[in-house]
Amino acid sequence: MNDSVYGIDLGTTYSAIARISDLGAAEVVPNFEGDSTTPSVVYFEGPGSVIVGAEAKRTALSDPDSACLLVKRHMGTEYPQEFRGETYSPEAISAIILKELVNAANNTTGAVIDKVVITVPAYFGVQERESTRQAGVIAGLDVVGIVTEPVAAALSIGARSDQAETIMVYDLGGGTFDTTIMETREGAVEVIAVDGNRKLGGADWDDALVDLIIGKFVAAADLGDEDPRYDEEFMLDLRLEAEDAKKSLSRRESVTLRLSFDGTKAMVEVTREEFEAATRHLLAQTIEISRRTVELGTTKRPQLSIDRVLLVGGSSRMPAVKAALKNELGWEAQDTEFDLAVAKGAAIYGQAAVDEVLRTGDEAAPVDVAADAPGRPFLPGGSASLTVKNALSRSVGIKFARDENDAEGYISFFAHSNDAIPAVPEPITALTLSEGQTSVELGLYEQAGERESEALADNRFLKDAVLALPKPMPRQSPIEIAIRISGEGLVTVTTTDPASGASVDLEASVSVLTEEQVEQETAKVSTLLSRS
Ligand code: AMP
């Protein structure tokens, strides 16, 4: 039995893979090209042949129709995409990336490892987590765990001392923003509060910079009636240039771009000050969310005070981020290995899982780690075991009707975002609606928007089940609903008719793909050849 495991940060724009070295430290394994990170881009070169990573990203520029970028945004949804006459689910495309990462890592290390832990954003709900797990299965991997990105970041950089600390992870990536407050102590991480905005990220800063640049270009160049904003190719090129310019502005006070449109050329200079002024409203949103996360944390821990703030995600490199955290919240935020911390933390989590010293609160029996067991160098503080306690990312509820005529219904939540998990919420007693009812239908829903809302449209349907009643029941007969939520956020609901003892289980480890589809996608992906 191989007892090694890879930790994989399956990112929206970049991915990375890590493992625990022979010396017991987490290390990132470079890919075939020697890079620590691999662009999460798949290029379908021809029937049965794909390219993954930097070369795929380069090739995608000249042939965008055969390339798949940003697939992570579609995880947990039905979003088939067709390339070279074949249809692929988001899970299958993610599987191609995972396979490439593992093959490259095995090639570099000379190992044959197929066990992995994959990270997901803290805001991922039940369906997206299950999709991620299925991507691993389609890639032929043994997924020993799914861990959230901030917990992974905390494991590799945060939870280091033997003192208890309260850590805030500020994660501003390419397309999303997340904040997480965690309590850490030797060998233990507990999530206290999670918040964020799924639609706020580096791409918004790019947009603002594009606007700034184009305004200056139009003012400087004599373009007559022509407006370059309507020229698709010009705008595509400008977006790429703007992202590079943005990165330069993290190091330099100003950048100069040479632009050309329809034969007219002009130089455009943008200073960091101008860029920061044009994006102040975006940064303000992250500060507001950070503040809100602290308020949320304070409701659970009245004495909460943040000891350390860790910057994660490529966009946290912008100097304005650190300055705003200092000026607005009084925090001295700390740089991390922005792109590598998450993969390393996943490796730590994975090694603890395969070594059977990981506790998530779900274990049937307590993990037996002797008090005098030797410490493990890869674990925070060199402790002997690792405890990770999560919080629920989204509220979960059941659909109820107000009365017989309420066809639409509403969602009654039994667990709320940020509740500590695993959890066994209070059982619910429901009442049958009509006289002579012979079955009860149970629909399980998850909060879809940023806030909890009773309206059906604001929630995402997860799964339903029907409990057949052995005989017609009088109106208002009680039905018992018992709920359990695992440490990974999977929900199990048991509905029982107390009169007959009949019951039905509903497990919301819901996935978009059926088992049969997973098999089909596995077969499809396994025949692809990757040219690296
Ligand atoms: P991630 O998803 O964490 O890899 O973050 C990618 C995002 O970080 C993209 O929007 C990049 O443009 C942005 N990014 C990477 N490096 C820098 C930098 N030096 N300054 C500003 N943004 C950056």
Lay out the secondary structure.
Blueprint lengths: L5 E4 L4 E7 L5 E3 L9 E2 L2 E5 L2 E4 L1 H9 L4 E2 L12 E3 L2 E3 L1 H20 L5 E6 L5 H13 L3 E7 H10 L6 E8 L4 E9 L2 E10 L4 H19 L11 H18 L4 E8 L2 E8 H7 L1 H21 L7 E5 L6 H11 L3 E2 L6 H14 L3 E2 L26 E6 L4 E5 L9 E6 L4 E2 L6 E4 L5 E11 L11 E15 L4 E8 L5 E6 L6 E5 L7 H12 L2 E2 L2
Helix pairs in contact: 2-3, 2-11, 4-10, 5-6, 8-9
Provide keyphrases for this structure.
binds adenosine monophosphate, Molecular chaperone DnaK, 30 strands, 8-stranded mixed β-sheet, ATP-dependent protein folding chaperone, globular, alpha+beta, 32% strand, 6-stranded mixed β-sheet, 532 residues, Actin, Chain A, domain 4, Substrate Binding Domain Of DNAk, Chain A, domain 1
Describe the structure.
Among the domains are: about 200-280, Actin, Chain A, domain 4 (Alpha-Beta Complex), CATH 3.90.640.10; about 395-500, Substrate Binding Domain Of DNAk, Chain A, domain 1 (Sandwich), CATH 2.60.34. A hairpin with a 5-residue loop joins strand 27 (about 480-485) and strand 28. It contains eleven helices and 30 strands. Helix 8 crosses helix 9 (about 320-330). Helices cover about 30% and strands about 30% of the residues. With about 525 residues, it is of the alpha+beta class. The radius of gyration is 25 Å and the shape is globular. The protein binds adenosine monophosphate. Adenosine monophosphate binds near residues 11, 203, 318 and 339. It holds the Pfam family HSP70.
